[in-house]
Specification:
The chain is of the alpha/beta class. It folds into 2 domains: 2-146 and 308-339, Quinone Oxidoreductase, Chain A, domain 1; 155-285, NAD(P)-binding Rossmann-like Domain (Rossmann fold, 3-Layer(aba) Sandwich), CATH 3.40.50. 29% of the residues lie in helices and 27% in strands. The chain is built from 12 helices and 18 strands. Strands 3, 5, 6, 9, 10, 17 and 18 form a 7-stranded mixed beta sheet that branches. Helix 5 (147-157) packs across helix 6 and helix 5 packs across helix 11 (293-303). The longest helix has 12 residues, at 174-185. The two termini are 14 Å apart. Its main location: cytoplasm. InterPro entries: ADH-like_C (IPR013149), ADH-like_N (IPR013154), ADH_Zn_CS (IPR002328), ER (IPR020843), GroES-like_sf (IPR011032), L-Threonine_3-DHase (IPR004627), NAD(P)-bd_dom_sf (IPR036291), Zn_alcohol_dh (IPR050129).
Length: 342
């Protein structure tokens, strides 16, 4: 089958023929229809410091996808050929304390699809049935393909109650943009998002944020004044992984403010811990989604009118993956989709 492979330990990706996966008794075979390009995939393609440490080649990339079930193992119930499905890309051990307590997203032995094992940038992908999400209600294929990153956005945005709150989001990448849409939908009073990309800030305005700030021109403190905020932001959603963005967020939180951090820094950096302590700020780290509570929340939000489709700005056939990855890496695009049906 055709797949996008990290063949060698060097920059680049290769479209190659690899054997089709073989499923076990508790697994499902899925014919891939659409995939989303994630920041993780960009790191692997670039072969940066994180990728050199984390990835073993050869590897089929990809963990954001939608497809159709074509085969199920003998032990699989409630999933049948023809079902439209997405997949939870974190495969957990099922045996550790957190797994046994139902907190599977906190598993200490998580294996990542398309990172630690072959992924979904291929014509077929095999996945444990326990990681398959069946779309029981109609959903657009492109939107279904980005349930994984939408789940990151939903998990982060809904970490704290949002009704009537003033929310600061640092980083207007695809997940930051989706988090802004979720925050608006969930009842936040003001949603402010920051970035340095004019194109992404324009996307944020289309989504309906209160302010989209280019922080090379307008500070977060100035944004506060523009909205008439007197004490700072109630909720912070850090999506950029940038040290300066995190420090700016901490400096503009109200006393007792709460910060959910999804952005992954490339290295350690200092923050003002005295400010965090004396302002009694809560900081929560977010990795992935709650299995499967976040997935239920995503489906419910979509049924309730949430529309993440404006975040999708590029669609390419998988053979045009070089152009698709260049678009995704430009810093100007939203979410980029690869079509595996043509």
């Amino acid at each position: 089958m055709k797949s996008l492979v990290k063949k060698w330990a060097e920059p680049g990706l290769w479209l190659a023929e690899v054997p089709e996966p073989v499923i076990g008794p508790a697994e499902v075979m899925i014919k891939v229809q659409r995939t989303g390009i994630c920041g993780t995939d960009l790191h692997i393609r670039a072969w940066d410091g994180w990728a050199r440490q984390a990835i073993r080649t050869p590897l089929v990339l990809g963990h954001e996808f939608v497809g159709e079930v074509v085969e199920v193992g003998s032990d699989v119930a409630d999933i049948v050929p023809g079902d439209r499905v997405s997949g939870e890309g974190h495969l957990v051990c099922g045996k550790c304390r957190n797994c046994l307590a139902g907190r599977r997203h906190l598993c200490c032995a998580t294996v990542g699809l398309g990172v630690d094992r072959d992924g979904a940038f291929a014509e077929y992908v095999a996945l444990p049935a326990s990681n398959v999400w069946v779309h029981r209600t109609p959903v657009d294929l492109d939107v279904a393909a980005i349930f994984d990153p939408l789940g990151n956005a939903v998990h982060t945005a809904l970490s704290f109650p949002l009704v009537g709150e003033d929310v600061l989001i640092t980083g207007a990448g695809p997940i930051g943009l989706m988090a802004a849409a979720v925050a608006r939908h969930a009842g936040a009073r003001h949603v402010v998002i920051t970035d340095v990309s004019a194109e992404r800030l324009d996307l944020a305005r289309e989504i309906g944020v209160s302010l989209a700030l280019n922080v090379t021109e307008v500070s977060v403190a100035e944004g506060q004044r523009m909205l008439g905020l007197r004490e700072g932001f109630d909720i912070g959603l850090e999506m950029s992984g940038r040290p300066e963005a995190t420090r700016e967020m901490i400096a503009n939180m109200t006393h007792g403010g709460r910060i959910a951090m999804l952005g992954l820094p490339s290295s350690e950096f200092p923050v003002d811990w005295a400010r965090i302590v004396t302002s009694m700020i809560t900081i929560k780290g977010i990795y992935g989604r709650e299995m499967f509570e976040t997935w239920y929340a995503m489906s419910a939000l979509l049924q309730g009118g949430l529309d993440p489709a404006p975040v999708i700005t590029g669609r390419y056939g998988y053979r045009d993956f070089e152009a698709a990855f260049a678009d995704a890496a430009s810093g100007r695009a939203g979410k980029i989709i690869l079509d595996w049906t043509s």
